[in-house]
Amino acid sequence: MSWISRSRLLVLGVLSATMLMTVLDGSIVTVAMPAIQRDLGFASAELSWTVNAYLIAYGGLLLLAGRLGDLIGRRAMFLAGNAVFVAASLLAGAATGPGMLIGARFLQGVGSAMASAVVLGILVTTFTDAGERAKAIGVFSFTGAAGASLGQVIGGVLTDALGWNYIFFINVPIGVVTIVLALRALPADRGLGLSAGADAVGALLVTAGLMLGIYAVVQIERYGPRSLWFGAASLVLLAAFLVRQATARTPLMPLRILRSRAVAGANLVQVLTLGAMFAFQVVVALFMQQVLRYGALDTGLAMLPAALSIAGVSLFASPRLSTRFGARAVLLGGLVLLIGAMAWLTRVPVDARYVTDLLPVMVLIMGGGLVLPALTTLGMSDARSDDAGLVSGVFNTTQQVGMAAGVALLSTVAASRTEGLLAGGASEAVALTGGYRLAFTVSLALLAGALVVAYVVLRRPRAGAEQAVEPQPERV
């Protein structure tokens, strides 16, 4: 990497390693759940909390952790988060019962939120040149794509070879090395001080609101419409948080960041896009296994071209295209490719053939390798040097909200459609395919909405059309 100095290469490596651990930890547990249930005596209703406890803590604390990183120093927050994550991983691997494991998973989510909330803030303040930043974001996005693809494979290998404990123990040496390198590589930053934004009431409102909202989403399959009450309470708390931020002397989240077209638009596009992409990440795999009767290994191999195309495009093509044409143009092109992939899936037949019905999707899904780095660039483009951690926390929060909402929406519509077709006398394969095709159709609509928002909201304003609301420190 001749475009980057050795010191900044080390910074990028440290940030990418943390991103890899965070993404891996979100998926690596799923394949080990049967072994965990058998060894620790989990009841079926409790087992999902090995995932839910992590998601609630992680998604609920990202915004708060991002702002605290600006106040006390992003380096300090990053190091503390990694330390909590390593300790929690050791505790999870040594768990002797359900309560101990669930508690450890919650602490893992806390540590992940603390570290990952400030990662993008550190990245954009380290790579200030537009060309270098595009390449760094491409490498960073590649790490995320690789982690998402490798999580289930690594989890299966470790569980079969060494036992489920090692899906947690593996984080310990990686985390320790990351902390040691971070102490050497990450530049020191003093932070603004807690007096610049120590809004305890706002922190309580936003954390409770986000945690309750994510809880409503992850519990929707268990509680059905009753979970909407949790969602409504979450919206009330988040609305109260916004009111509080508009009136507080030292707001936790200055509302000026939402007046940025780039920040607001990129985050909205991210929610719609990641909500839609759940259809590919999970529903396609379910279709292969439940309808086409692929085994787990066959499904993984069938999905491999998609993982390679996304990773390759984000690492090599996206930085060059963004530098030449701009992040907005790359985002629009990537969304068009994703729309093509989802449109192809809406017509998938019950007796689908891989080469003609699924492989084209695996190729078109490379659009994700264009969309994610472009969104990161746009979402962080208006971040100021004193609030880069907060903007990073907002961006990571909407990422989690988008994925969680996609899980709730698409799994619900697919299941409802399947049940209706079964009640009408359809075979199981036909009913499942009908449910999945409806999920793909909804995903197509979400991506179309993302394309419209990206085109309208993220367009460049005419010269002089927007004025700075207040004198602003240097942008990063």
Automatic annotation (TrEMBL):
Positions of the Major facilitator superfamily (MFS) profile domain: 11-462
Domain of life: Bacteria
GO molecular function annotation: transmembrane transporter activity
Record-annotated membrane-spanning stretches: 42-64, 76-96, 102-124, 136-158, 164-186, 198-220, 226-243, 264-288, 300-317, 329-346, 358-380, 401-418, 438-458
Subcellular locations according to the entry: Cell membrane
Keyword Cell membrane: yes
Keywords carried by this UniProt record: Cell membrane, Membrane, Transmembrane, Transmembrane helix, Transport
PANTHER family cross-referenced by the UniProt entry: BLR6921 PROTEIN, MAJOR FACILITATOR SUPERFAMILY MULTIDRUG TRANSPORTER MFSC
UniProt-recorded name of the protein: Drug resistance transporter, EmrB/QacA subfamily
